[in-house]
Structure to design on (204 residues):
């Protein structure tokens, strides 16, 4: 089975992925942050590196999905391939940070990849307000994220909402991240675990 967590930068995806993997005994697949060769450059010069970064994410996400299918294990994935294609890349394009030529090339590649994969069995969407995102980004203190602008996060949130509204590929559960403190409140985590169990029983 393939479970995936979707959500904006700083919404708590990585934390929740780790906690749920530990509880259920699932194998976690985290987003490639530490070894990503484009991330620092991207935040310093988005226009120059946007296409490179998005292609890198697309490639690593596609590879992850193939590995998940091949493994035969139940896997929980930190971020989906759809967020790259329907949220981050279009946002960069609309902001003038990715050319139309590059965006069309990117989306053509995504469509090819998408035709070869199955969607996750369940997507958990962490919906978080901009103040929550900013607070959590500051708390984790990644230097390259210090230059992220409020309007950039706001635009991404708007695109997330539009995507969630139209998504129909599989089951999708919305989690109001503003109301939960998963690392420090066991009852909050238990509540989400109960909801996930209820959803997963419906898959069989």
């Amino acid at each position: 089975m393939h479970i995936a967590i979707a959500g904006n930068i700083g919404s708590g995806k990585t934390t929740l992925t780790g906690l749920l993997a530990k509880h259920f005994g699932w194998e976690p697949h985290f987003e490639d942050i530490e070894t990503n060769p484009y991330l620092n450059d991207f935040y310093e010069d988005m226009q120059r590196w946007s296409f490179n970064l998005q292609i890198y994410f697309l490639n690593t996400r596609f590879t992850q999905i193939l590995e998940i299918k091949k493994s035969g294990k139940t896997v929980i994935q930190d971020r989906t391939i759809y967020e790259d294609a329907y949220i981050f890349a279009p946002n960069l394009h609309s902001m003038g940070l990715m050319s139309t030529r590059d965006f069309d090339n990117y989306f053509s590649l995504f469509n090819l990849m998408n035709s070869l994969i199955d969607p996750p069995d369940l997507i958990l969407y962490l919906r978080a307000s901009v103040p929550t995102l900013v607070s959590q980004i500051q708390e984790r203190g990644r230097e390259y994220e210090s230059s992220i602008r409020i309007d950039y996060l706001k635009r991404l949130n708007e695109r997330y909402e539009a995507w969630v509204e139209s998504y129909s590929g599989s089951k999708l559960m919305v989690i109001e991240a503003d109301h939960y403190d998963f690392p420090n409140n066991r009852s909050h985590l238990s509540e989400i675990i109960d909801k996930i169990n209820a959803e997963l029983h419906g898959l069989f």
